[in-house]
Specification:
It is built from eight helices and no strands. The protein is mostly helical and 204 residues long.
């Protein structure tokens, strides 16, 4: 019974550190904070977008804006040529925003410009594949997103950044330890085999 309990505890610890590591990594890739990403992930589930896909979408948002600011071209050129002037949006309005903030301003600008549903889909897909699915969350100044984000916190679904970072650090340290032990064992095994080679002619 004690052995089973210990095994269960180890599995729980492993699952927790794996989750923390994944959240930290996805938040980093998405260009958001750890706690903010968890809020967004909770909200995005309501529109069928899981956290891995959410991270990809937000990464694309950052990439597209970076591409436009670097070259003045790319998929967002049409937005800045046709939508931004209609709503009095300066080209540097997105500078310094996190990916989710940038997406929020992007959707607000499209809504303020009174684009059609087909145009909305066109512009959303231009910024990131499947980004259209997130549109309901960001409409009306991200009203639904704010409500769902707070609901996620109220339900205790958002872990503190410090806890996530500690969990991710534990996973990295454990993997380093296991890797070191594996290397040590392999080195020992090779040394043993090499020592026996002269006796058994293993290498022949």
């Amino acid at each position: 019974a004690l052995g089973a309990a210990s095994a269960a505890m180890v599995r729980t610890l492993k699952d927790a550190t794996n989750m923390a590591f994944e959240i930290e990594n996805l938040a980093r890739v998405s260009g958001t904070g750890i706690e903010r990403f968890q809020e967004l992930a909770h909200a995005s589930k309501s529109v069928g977008i899981e956290q891995g896909k959410l991270s990809d979408i937000l990464k694309d948002v950052n990439d597209k804006f970076g591409d436009y600011y670097a070259t003045g071209a790319g998929p967002l050129a049409d937005f800045f040529d046709n939508i931004a002037p209609k709503v009095g949006l300066a080209k540097d309005a997105f500078a310094g925003l996190s990916s989710d903030q940038a997406l929020g301003l992007y959707v607000k600008s499209l809504q303020d410009a009174n684009v059609s549903q087909s145009e909305l889909t066109f512009y959303m897909e231009a910024i990131a594949s499947d980004a259209t699915a997130l549109t309901p969350l960001f409409l009306n100044n991200a009203e639904a997103l704010d409500e769902l984000s707070q609901a996620g916190r109220d339900l205790g679904l958002v872990m503190d950044e410090d806890i996530v970072q500690k969990g991710a650090k534990m996973k990295r340290q454990f993997e380093t330890f296991v890797g070191s032990m594996r290397t040590t064992f392999n080195t020992f095994a090779i040394d043993v085999i090499s020592g026996l080679d002269g006796i058994f002619n293993i290498s022949d």
